[in-house]
Amino acid sequence: MGCDADSFADDLDDLSSAEDFLDYFGIDYDARVVQVNRLHILQRYHDYLAKQEAGKAPEYQAWRKWLELAYRDFVDSSAQQEKVLAVYRKAEGSSFLPLSSLTG
Asked: How does pLDDT run across 49-99, given as a tens digit for each residue?
């Protein structure tokens, strides 16, 4: 699907969920993967776009490629492994102490 930049930008404004984006770009997906990782997929997508498309007008094929890559990152991995959201990056340097070890 190719479209002019104005129409494409208008279409993007109407998308609100990971499923909306995946459906719009015609990307086959496992609903279970998306259900568990929707925020992580969208954040990874945003990160890919920010790195690759800075200053460029939105282009359907390029944006589709980055969304498919973001989705694929979570097919065989997990949010904990991918560490997309800050909460997982911060937790990486933390130590866990069970509550029982604090009582004596």
From this structure: 888 766 677 788 989 999 999 999 989 876 666 666 555 555 455 555 566
Residue-level pLDDT at 34: 95
CB 71 within 8 A of CB 34: yes
- Report angle CA 21, 65, 10 to the nearest 5 degrees: 45
Q: How far is CA 78 from CA 19, 48, 61, in A?
A: 18, 18, 26
User: Which phi and psi angles does 98 have, rounded to 5°?
Assistant: -65, 145
Contact between 47 and 61 under an 8 Å Cβ cutoff? The reply is no
Tokens of 45: 């997508």
